[in-house]
Inverse folding.
C-alpha cells in the first residue's frame, strides 16, 4: 500500500503511460456443486438438543420451545421426513446415523448439511495467466494498445482445457456459496474473445541508479507473474536509440536551462529532475516558458497544457481588442508581434509532430488529450471554413510510417503520415501557430525501452519561430499521406492541414 506522498511523487516523476491489451475469453460453465445448506433455526436446535441428550421425548421438545402439541408434531414430522431423527425401541427420538455424522464431521460440533445443486455461469479468464477477470471492460480490438501474448502458446489454442483447469483451481473465488465444492463439471463452452485494457504508468525512480519503474493500478492484474512477464516481453522488442542529437536540441532552441546540466556532452538527468521538477529551485527566467517532464497526455501535463492554451487564447483576444485602440505615447500604433498571424485567423488549429518511437501515445489518454484541445480551439473558430482540430503527423522512414500510422487510426481524427525525421526522430512538437508550442526531446536511459520526455511549454515568440522554422523546412517538398479512416473527410482534412502548413511557412523567421 503506497502512501499519499509516494503517490504524489510518482505523479511528478511520471514519464509515460501505455495501455496493454490482455487477451481474454468468456466461458459458459455448467456444473453441479455440493453446497452447505442452512437448516431452519428450530430444526437445528432440536437436532443439537438430541445430540447432547442422546434421546428426546416429544414432551421435552414441546416444553423446551414452548410449542403447542400441533406445532411440536409438525417439527417432529419434518425431522422424520428429512431422515434426521428416528424412533427407537423405547418410543423416544434419537439422531439417525446420517445426522450423527453431520456432527462428527464438523470441527465445532455443529451440524453441517450439504445439498447437490446445479450451478451455471459465464466466467471470464485472461488467456495469459488464466485467472478469473471478474467483469472487466471488454474491447474487440484497439490498434493503439500494445497487445500482450502468453509465453506458453498452447494457452491460446487449447483455451477450453485451460479454462476447465483454471475453474477448478479458482473455484472458491468464483463461486461465493459458503462451503461449496465442485461435484461434477458438465460442460465448458468457449465464448467470445476480446481484450481487457490494462493502463500502466511509467515513472522515474531516482533511488540509487536512475531507473524507470512501472505502476499498474489494478489489483486484479498487478500481482500476476504471467502478466508481468508478458509486459516485459512486449517491451523487450523495442529499440533503444542513443541521445546523439540531444546537444543539437539544446543548441537549436538555445536552452540555457538544459545546458547547465551538460558536462562533457553528458546530460545529468538526475540533477536536472531534482532541481527543476522536484525541489523547483531552478527554472526558466520567464513565466512564458514552463519546464515539462513526461508525455503531453499524462493527466497532470494535459491539464497544464490545456490551461495554458486557454490563458493564451484570452491574452490573444485582448490583444486583438487593443489593436485598433491602443496607441503609444508618440501617437503610433502599439507594436504587437503576434498581430500579423492573429489577423488571418483568431485561433489556429494545432499540428502535432510525433517522435519516431513505436510506444508513443499507445493509450486512451492521448486521444482524450487531442479531443480536449480540439473542443477548446473549435469554440474560438466558428468562422473558419476548414475543420479545426489537431493534425497529427506520424513520422518514419520508408514503409514504417504507414505501419505505425495504422496503429493510431482509432486515436486521432486528423491523422497523416510522412517521412519527416527531426533530431533522429526523437523530437516531439505540438504547435498552435501564433499561440503556443510544446517541445519534448525523448531522452533514453541505457537498457530502458521507455524514453524520458523532457522539454518545455512556451509562448515566447522565439520558440514559436524556431518550431515553425523546423516544421516549415521539414514539410517543404515532403510527401504527406492521409491515414484517416473516414475517407469522406480526407479532402477537407487535407485542405485544413495545407492551410495550417501555409500559415506556418509564412511566419517571419528573421
Amino acid at each position: 500500500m503506497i502512501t499519499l506522498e509516494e503517490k504524489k511523487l510518482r505523479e511528478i516523476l511520471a514519464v509515460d503511460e501505455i495501455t496493454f491489451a490482455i487477451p481474454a475469453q468468456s466461458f459458459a460453465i455448467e456444473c453441479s456443486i455440493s453446497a452447505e445448506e442452512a437448516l431452519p433455526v428450530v430444526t437445528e436446535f432440536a437436532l443439537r438438543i438430541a445430540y447432547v441428550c442422546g434421546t428426546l421425548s416429544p414432551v421435552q421438545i414441546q416444553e423446551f420451545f414452548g410449542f403447542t402439541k400441533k406445532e411440536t408434531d409438525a417439527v417432529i414430522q419434518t425431522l422424520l421426513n428429512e431422515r434426521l431423527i428416528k424412533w427407537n425401541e423405547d418410543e423416544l427420538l434419537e439422531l439417525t446415523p446420517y445426522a450423527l455424522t453431520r456432527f462428527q464431521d464438523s470441527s465445532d460440533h455443529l451440524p453441517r448439511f450439504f445439498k447437490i445443486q446445479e450451478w451455471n455461469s459465464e466466467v471470464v479468464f485472461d488467456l495469459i495467466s488464466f485467472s478469473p477477470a471478474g467483469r472487466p471492460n471488454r474491447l474487440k480490438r484497439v490498434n493503439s494498445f500494445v497487445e500482450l501474448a502468453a509465453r506458453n502458446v498452447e494457452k491460446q489454442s487449447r483455451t477450453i482445457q485451460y479454462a476447465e483447469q483454471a475453474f477448478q483451481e479458482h473455484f472458491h473465488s468464483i463461486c461465493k456459496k459458503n462451503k461449496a465444492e465442485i461435484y461434477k463439471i458438465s460442460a465448458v463452452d468457449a465464448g467470445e474473445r476480446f481484450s481487457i485494457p490494462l493502463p500502466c504508468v511509467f515513472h522515474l525512480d531516482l533511488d540509487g541508479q536512475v531507473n524507470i519503474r512501472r505502476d499498474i493500478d489494478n489489483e486484479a492484474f498487478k500481482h500476476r507473474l504471467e502478466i508481468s512477464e508478458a509486459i516485459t516481453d512486449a517491451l523487450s522488442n523495442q529499440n533503444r536509440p542513443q541521445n546523439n542529437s540531444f546537444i543539437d536540441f539544446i543548441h537549436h532552441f538555445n536552452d540555457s536551462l538544459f545546458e547547465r546540466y551538460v558536462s562533457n556532452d553528458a546530460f545529468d538527468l538526475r540533477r536536472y529532475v531534482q532541481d527543476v521538477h522536484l525541489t523547483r529551485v531552478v527554472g526558466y527566467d520567464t513565466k512564458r516558458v514552463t519546464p515539462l517532464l513526461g508525455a503531453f497526455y499524462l493527466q497532470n501535463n494535459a491539464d497544464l497544457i490545456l490551461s495554458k492554451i486557454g490563458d493564451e487564447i484570452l491574452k490573444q483576444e485582448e490583444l486583438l481588442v487593443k489593436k485598433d485602440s491602443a496607441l503609444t505615447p508618440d501617437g503610433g500604433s502599439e507594436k504587437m508581434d503576434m498581430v500579423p498571424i492573429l489577423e488571418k485567423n483568431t485561433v489556429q488549429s494545432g499540428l502535432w509532430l510525433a517522435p519516431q518511437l513505436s510506444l508513443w501515445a499507445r493509450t486512451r489518454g492521448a486521444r482524450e488529450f487531442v479531443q480536449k484541445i480540439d473542443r477548446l480551439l473549435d469554440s474560438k473558430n466558428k468562422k473558419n471554413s476548414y475543420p479545426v482540430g489537431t493534425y497529427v503527423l506520424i513520422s518514419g522512414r520508408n514503409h514504417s510510417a504507414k505501419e505505425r500510422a495504422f496503429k493510431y487510426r482509432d486515436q486521432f481524427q486528423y491523422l497523416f503520415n510522412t517521412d519527416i525525421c527531426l533530431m533522429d526522430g526523437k523530437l516531439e512538437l505540438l504547435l498552435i501557430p501564433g499561440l503556443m508550442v510544446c517541445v519534448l526531446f525523448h531522452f533514453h536511459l541505457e537498457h530502458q525501452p521507455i524514453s524520458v520526455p523532457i522539454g518545455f511549454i512556451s509562448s515566447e515568440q522565439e520558440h514559436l519561430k524556431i518550431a515553425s522554422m523546423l516544421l516549415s523546412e521539414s514539410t517543404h517538398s515532403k510527401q504527406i499521406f492521409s491515414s484517416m479512416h473516414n475517407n469522406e473527410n480526407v479532402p477537407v482534412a487535407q485542405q485544413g492541414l495545407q492551410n495550417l502548413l501555409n500559415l506556418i511557412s509564412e511566419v517571419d523567421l528573421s
Q: What stands out?
A: The radius of gyration is 34 Å.
